[in-house]
Amino acid sequence: MSLTDEELKTLKKELSSEKKTMKRLKESLAELLTKAGSEVMETQAKEMVLAILKDNLVWELNRKVTAHRQRVVAALEVWWDKYRVTLRAIEGERDAAKAKLDRFMRGLGYAN
Protein backbone atom coordinates (compact mmCIF):
# COMPACT_ATOMS: atom_id res chain seq x y z
CA MET A 1 0.00 0.00 0.00
CA SER A 2 1.55 3.28 -1.07
CA LEU A 3 0.45 6.74 -0.14
CA THR A 4 0.04 9.66 -2.46
CA ASP A 5 2.12 12.77 -1.94
CA GLU A 6 -0.95 14.60 -0.69
CA GLU A 7 -1.76 11.88 1.88
CA LEU A 8 1.85 11.83 3.02
CA LYS A 9 1.85 15.62 3.50
CA THR A 10 -1.38 15.40 5.47
CA LEU A 11 0.02 12.67 7.72
CA LYS A 12 3.22 14.63 8.31
CA LYS A 13 1.17 17.71 9.28
CA GLU A 14 -0.90 15.62 11.69
CA LEU A 15 2.25 14.09 13.16
CA SER A 16 3.81 17.53 13.61
CA SER A 17 0.63 18.80 15.25
CA GLU A 18 0.50 15.81 17.61
CA LYS A 19 4.16 16.26 18.53
CA LYS A 20 3.49 19.90 19.41
CA THR A 21 0.48 18.88 21.50
CA MET A 22 2.57 16.26 23.30
CA LYS A 23 5.30 18.81 24.00
CA ARG A 24 2.75 21.24 25.47
CA LEU A 25 1.25 18.47 27.61
CA LYS A 26 4.69 17.46 28.91
CA GLU A 27 5.47 21.06 29.81
CA SER A 28 2.08 21.38 31.51
CA LEU A 29 2.70 18.18 33.46
CA ALA A 30 6.11 19.42 34.54
CA GLU A 31 4.57 22.68 35.75
CA LEU A 32 1.84 20.83 37.63
CA LEU A 33 4.39 18.53 39.27
CA THR A 34 6.57 21.48 40.26
CA LYS A 35 3.56 23.30 41.69
CA ALA A 36 2.37 20.20 43.57
CA GLY A 37 5.85 19.61 44.90
CA SER A 38 6.14 23.10 46.25
CA GLU A 39 2.71 22.81 47.85
CA VAL A 40 3.68 19.74 49.84
CA MET A 41 4.37 20.84 53.36
CA GLU A 42 7.59 19.89 55.06
CA THR A 43 5.76 17.66 57.55
CA GLN A 44 4.01 15.84 54.71
CA ALA A 45 7.34 15.33 53.01
CA LYS A 46 8.81 13.93 56.23
CA GLU A 47 5.82 11.62 56.66
CA MET A 48 6.17 10.40 53.09
CA VAL A 49 9.89 9.73 53.52
CA LEU A 50 9.31 7.98 56.84
CA ALA A 51 6.54 5.85 55.33
CA ILE A 52 8.84 4.81 52.48
CA LEU A 53 11.66 4.02 54.90
CA LYS A 54 9.26 2.06 57.13
CA ASP A 55 8.05 0.01 54.16
CA ASN A 56 11.64 -0.74 53.17
CA LEU A 57 12.52 -1.70 56.75
CA VAL A 58 9.48 -3.96 57.09
CA TRP A 59 10.31 -5.63 53.77
CA GLU A 60 13.95 -6.19 54.82
CA LEU A 61 12.94 -7.54 58.24
CA ASN A 62 10.44 -9.92 56.67
CA ARG A 63 13.10 -11.12 54.26
CA LYS A 64 15.56 -11.76 57.08
CA VAL A 65 12.95 -13.45 59.31
CA THR A 66 11.96 -15.72 56.43
CA ALA A 67 15.59 -16.62 55.73
CA HIS A 68 16.21 -17.36 59.43
CA ARG A 69 13.02 -19.42 59.66
CA GLN A 70 14.15 -21.47 56.66
CA ARG A 71 17.53 -22.11 58.32
CA VAL A 72 15.81 -23.23 61.55
CA VAL A 73 13.48 -25.55 59.65
CA ALA A 74 16.42 -27.02 57.72
CA ALA A 75 18.34 -27.63 60.98
CA LEU A 76 15.30 -29.27 62.58
CA GLU A 77 14.82 -31.50 59.55
CA VAL A 78 18.46 -32.62 59.76
CA TRP A 79 18.10 -33.32 63.48
CA TRP A 80 14.84 -35.17 62.89
CA ASP A 81 16.42 -37.40 60.28
CA LYS A 82 19.50 -37.96 62.43
CA TYR A 83 17.96 -38.51 65.86
CA ARG A 84 14.39 -39.68 65.33
CA VAL A 85 13.80 -42.79 67.33
CA THR A 86 10.32 -43.54 68.60
CA LEU A 87 9.62 -44.51 72.18
CA ARG A 88 8.28 -47.84 70.91
CA ALA A 89 11.60 -48.58 69.17
CA ILE A 90 13.56 -47.76 72.33
CA GLU A 91 11.23 -49.93 74.43
CA GLY A 92 11.54 -52.76 71.89
CA GLU A 93 15.33 -52.63 72.04
CA ARG A 94 15.16 -52.54 75.84
CA ASP A 95 12.84 -55.56 75.98
CA ALA A 96 15.06 -57.50 73.55
CA ALA A 97 18.15 -56.71 75.65
CA LYS A 98 16.29 -57.71 78.84
CA ALA A 99 15.22 -61.01 77.29
CA LYS A 100 18.79 -61.70 76.15
CA LEU A 101 20.14 -60.85 79.62
CA ASP A 102 17.50 -63.08 81.26
CA ARG A 103 18.54 -66.00 79.01
CA PHE A 104 22.18 -65.38 79.84
CA MET A 105 21.48 -65.21 83.59
CA ARG A 106 19.40 -68.40 83.44
CA GLY A 107 22.25 -70.06 81.59
CA LEU A 108 24.54 -69.14 84.46
CA GLY A 109 21.98 -70.34 87.02
CA TYR A 110 21.21 -66.94 88.59
CA ALA A 111 17.60 -66.65 87.47
CA ASN A 112 14.59 -68.98 87.49
Structural class: mainly alpha
The topology string of helices and strands comes to HHH
What number is the mean pLDDT?
88
Overall shape: it is elongated
- Overall helicity: over 70%
Tally of alpha and pi helices: 3
Strand residue percentage: under 5%
Count of β-strands: 0
Radius of gyration: 41 Å
* CA distance, first residue to last residue: 112 Å
List the helices and strands and how they pair.
Elements: H1 5-39, H2 42-83, H3 87-108
Structure overview:
The protein has 112 residues and is mainly alpha-helical. It has a domain at 1-39. The chain has three helices and no strands. It has helices at residues 5-39, 42-83, 87-108. The longest helix has 42 residues, at 42-83. The radius of gyration is 41 Å and the shape is elongated. The N and C termini lie far apart (112 Å).
State the main characteristics:
112 residues; mainly alpha; 0% strand
Structure summarized in a few sentences:
The protein has 112 residues and is mostly helical. The protein contains 3 helices and no strands.
